[in-house]
Amino acid sequence: MAPNLNDDNSLFNFVVKEGNGVKGLVDLGLTEVPDRYIQPPHRRINKQEVAGSLEIVIIDLSELYGPNHEEVVKAIVHASETLGFFQVVNHGVPLEVLDSLKDTAHQFFGQPAEKKAVYLKEVSPSPLVKYGTSFVPENEKSLEWKDYLSMIYTNDADARESWPNDCKEVVLEYINTSTEMVQKVLKALIGNLGVKLDDSRLHELMGFNLVNINFYPACPNPDLTVGAGSHSDAGMLTVLLQDGIGGLYVKKGDQNASVGNEVWVEIPPMHGALVINVGDSLQILSNGRYISAEHRVRTTDVESRVSVPRFIAPLLTVKIGPFPELVARDGVARYKEVIYGEYLKNFFEKSLNGKKSLDFALLD
Description:
Layout: H1 8-17, H2 21-26, E1 58-60, H3 69-82, E2 85-89, H4 95-109, H5 113-117, E3 129-133, E4 147-153, H6 156-162, H7 168-192, H8 199-205, E5 208-216, E6 228-231, E7 237-242, E8 248-252, E9 263-266, E10 274-278, H9 280-285, E11 295-297, E12 305-313, E13 319-320, H10 324-330, E14 338-339, H11 340-349
Parallel strand pairs: 1-2
Antiparallel strand pairs: 2-10, 3-4, 4-5, 5-12, 6-11, 7-10, 7-12, 8-9, 8-11, 13-14
């Protein structure tokens, strides 16, 4: 039954509890967004105020273990110390896998609502799979214009048993063909800090893996809404496949700039490239040397957009804090030691709000 768009409870039940999502709203033939999706002015993304697209660093990872090794590491480090974002090519993930991922995303979200709703958190047959909308809709005054499918990766066998049939194989291929690349990038970043990690510690720091398939339906009022609010990611690194539509923006320069004075730049889509960004955990471990980039997603009225981020994070039971070698060198620890699972719990208990999640690890 169609909801009463002027009634908050009716809208919430239709979109969130019944699993129709934003896609279900759009399929009703909306000509304007419901009030619940209208963002306060300071959270909206005004295209005119964005500083164009950035000449973002594009790194050829095939050079990482060749004669230009040092230059490639320097480029990765510089991008991670300044913007927290860079794009990689020749990354080892076949282009046909990337194209299949985008096709699969559209196919999954193009299904009838009842087929997707079987994975709603309350009824999902597995804790490894969740379908939902917005970020934490129960805690948000203004909802995000986004639906998503979230899949935790433990091993191939669990994934094949619990993930949706129509996307599990291509997502597994995405994970299995990108893991070596993630390890290389992380080793380069940690090695640059003068820190040596054995394989077991490296596994602890990148042992929790989550893949989201994000779907941003075309929106009748993109200037009033956001696809994803301003935030940084909680983990170590995020590897993101975006389609050709664009709409991903990163905050440049002073991460603490006051609202209205910050500068946002677009991460331009590039066919065949993957976007990598630094997460909060790596900022904490590096004692603030590497920057977890604050970013957000704009909606569009042109066509639906998809993206597929892979979040690489520490195991939930692992303690993260600045590497001791860096504290000894810097003479100060800028963050306290926290258990990653507790950090993540705090991250998901609040609506997205820039880099406020890092306050949880700040020393008093």
